[in-house]
């Protein structure tokens, strides 16, 4: 069976895409799955969370996307595997000068290692650009993390429209699996935002939202998942519960 590919996407910056990829992937690994994370953001925050900074000349995913070099996933003792990124990824689009082939590069390169994993989880930059379309053409499922504040709601429909248009044109199997509330707190604004989203999107909104919890940024700054950093924390419990929801949908394609 080949990996289920999940893209974590929202063009709103700071919606906890990277923390979600890092901790969801780690929780799926702790549940016994073979997991690969893909850093598809030239900001390289996910790569940094794994304690890495890719220097010029070292391998990053741009080499495979642009020059078709074999994928070199990195392995760690206590984290899922990683395809790292560097600032070079920002130049990827220019190499294809709008050639349609460019929009399927991620799908094609991941197909070479898909059999080796149960889940592949992709982190995206805060935009709906060339790389986001690559991500949606490669994915089976999309998770939209939404910061639980009124301003977090802005633009969700643009993400959903893009998913719909990719689904109806170039990637029929693609579907939105979850909207994930992130950075929830006890304020009235946070509660109203959650109510609004649950009313609007019903079961698409994951049962387990992620609370604001200092252990989440502390863990990624330390290069370990929140489950390892502070197993009893609210952040760890929430990401574990969300991973169970994701896993319940089922493995493989
Ligand atoms: N549950 C949480 N509790 C506390 N802080 C959090 C939580 N989730 C995310 N953060 C913090 O919020 C900030 C934004 O999170 P993150 O980097 O994951 O967002 P992003 O959507 O990936 O951002 P970008 O759009 O820039 O890629 C980070 O500093 C992160 O550590
Ligand atoms: Mg990010």
Automatic annotation (TrEMBL):
<dbReference type="Pfam" id="PF13614">
    <property type="entry name" value="AAA_31"/>
</dbReference>
<protein>
    <submittedName>
        <fullName>Sporulation initiation inhibitor Soj</fullName>
    </submittedName>
</protein>
<keyword id="KW-0614">Plasmid</keyword>
<dbReference type="InterPro" id="IPR027417">
    <property type="entry name" value="P-loop_NTPase"/>
</dbReference>
<dbReference type="InterPro" id="IPR050678">
    <property type="entry name" value="DNA_Partitioning_ATPase"/>
</dbReference>
<feature type="domain" description="AAA">
    <location>
        <begin position="3"/>
        <end position="175"/>
    </location>
</feature>
<dbReference type="InterPro" id="IPR025669">
    <property type="entry name" value="AAA_dom"/>
</dbReference>
């Amino acid at each position: 069976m080949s990996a289920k590919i999940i893209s974590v996407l929202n063009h709103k910056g700071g919606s906890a895409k990277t923390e979600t990829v890092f901790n969801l992937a780690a929780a799926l690994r702790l549940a016994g799955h073979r997991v690969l994370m893909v850093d598809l953001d030239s900001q390289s925050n996910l790569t940094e969370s794994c304690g890495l900074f890719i220097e010029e000349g070292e391998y990053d995913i741009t080499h495979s996307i642009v020059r078709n070099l074999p994928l070199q996933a990195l392995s760690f003792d206590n984290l899922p595997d990683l395809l790292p990124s560097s600032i070079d990824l920002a130049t990827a689009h220019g190499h294809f000068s709008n050639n349609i082939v460019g929009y399927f590069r991620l799908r094609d390169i991941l197909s070479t290692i898909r059999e080796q994993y149960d889940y592949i989880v992709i982190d995206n930059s805060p935009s709906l650009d060339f790389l986001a379309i690559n991500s949606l053409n490669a994915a089976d499922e999309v998770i939209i993390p939404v910061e639980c504040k009124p301003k977090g709601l802005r633009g969700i429909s643009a993400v959903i429209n893009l998913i719909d248009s990719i689904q109806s044109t170039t990637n029929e199997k693609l579907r939105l699996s979850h909207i994930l509330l992130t950075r929830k707190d006890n304020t009235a604004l946070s509660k109203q935002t959650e109510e609004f989203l649950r009313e609007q999107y019903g079961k698409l909104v994951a049962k387990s939202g992620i609370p604001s919890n200092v252990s989440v940024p502390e863990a990624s700054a330390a290069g370990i998942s929140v489950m390892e950093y502070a197993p009893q924390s609210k952040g760890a419990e929430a990401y574990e519960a969300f991973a169970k929801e994701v896993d319940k949908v089922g493995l493989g394609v």
